[in-house]
Amino acid sequence: MTEPGPPNAAQVASSAYRLAALDQEFLLGDTTRGLRFQLEYQKAAEALRNFGVVSTLIVFGSSRARENGPGRQSFWYAEAREFGRLASVEGGAARGGPPFPNVVATGGGPGTMEAANRGAFEAGAPTIGFNITLPREQEPNRFTTPALTFRFHYFAMRKMHFAMGAKALVVFPGGFGTFDELFELVTLVQTGKAPAMPIVLVDEVYWRKVVDWDALTESGMIGARDLELIGFAADAAGAWRYLKAAGIAAPDGRVSRAEDPAGNLPLGEGLKRS
Asked: How far is CA 226 from CA 199, 210, 220, 223, 271, in A?
């Protein structure tokens, strides 16, 4: 004969009785969306700060570009890899730390993202991957620093982390996702929601072919000076020269403890509050 359960079995088994922090049904519900948004911000922000990342150089580009791909794909992959290496060496992230300035950060996936992370990895620098959960699951590439390999559910929070602490944006050829990310940051700079930063598009021929930049000003959709927010480069070396001319690297390529004597890393302080 089965022994009867405790008289309060139904109460103990109720979802209402679960600790809120351990209740997945509650945590993944509609009313806790704001909490999940906060957690996606806080987890990555704390990890970056604890690692000693002071600032980032964002690299966007197609996930479809392959090292031995057709057409210009192999060129784009090679140049993104070279940029990751060059920026890490010349920008200071490969010189040891913490703190680590000018850390190469990408969307963490394959293609151009992998190439830029790979170049930074080969230079001995830390490198960031801001991955996103997609219907066709994106796996992180093997070159991002494990402690700096993140995954987001919300595109908006992922974009916020791209903007926080970014000192420059380098964009290689890409499709819808690359355009979305590019124009998001251009708009933040244009509207003063993010501090001015150099934005350089690599492979000018591609970018002038797929976007009629002059038509935007001729039709009055943007001001003539808005085009000054964007520069062009033929290759990785040209992109780095553009960033150097904009004053990205300190004279010695490092951020000194004298600039941050308390160790309070200012990642994200430049993103203006609305």
From this structure: 12, 18, 11, 5, 20
From residue 73, how far is each of 67, 125, 138, 175 by CA, in Å? 7, 25, 20, 13
| Strand-pair category, 128-132 with 149-152 | parallel
Q: Which domain holds residue 214?
A: 23-245
Asked whether residue 119 is domain-assigned, the answer is: yes
Between the alpha carbon of residue 135 and those of residues 49, 139, 162, 165, 181, the distances in Å are 30, 12, 21, 29, 19
Tell me the backbone φ, ψ of residue 241, rounded to 5 degrees: -60, -40
- Which residues, in sequence order, are bridge partners of residue 231? 200
pTM: 0.89
Indicate the number of domains in the chain.
1
User: Minimal CA–CA distance to 108: which of 137, 125, 134, 130?
Assistant: 130
Residues of the chain under the 70 pLDDT cut: 1-2, 136-137, 250-274
Evaluate whether residue 128 is within a structural domain. Answer: yes
Q: Is residue 255 part of a domain?
A: no
Could you tell me the CATH number of the domain that includes residue 104?
Answer: 3.40.50.450
Within 13 Å of residue 129, how many CA atoms lie on the same side as its CB? Answer: 30
Pairing assessment for the beta strands 199-202 and 149-152 based on DSSP bridges: unpaired
User: Rounded to an integer, what distance in angstroms lies between the CA atom of residue 255 and that of residue 250?
Assistant: 7
- Is 121 within the bounds of a domain? yes
pLDDT digits (tens, 9 = 90+) for 91-123: 999 998 899 999 999 999 999 999 999 999 999
For residue 3, report the phi and psi dihedrals to the nearest 5 degrees.
-70, 135
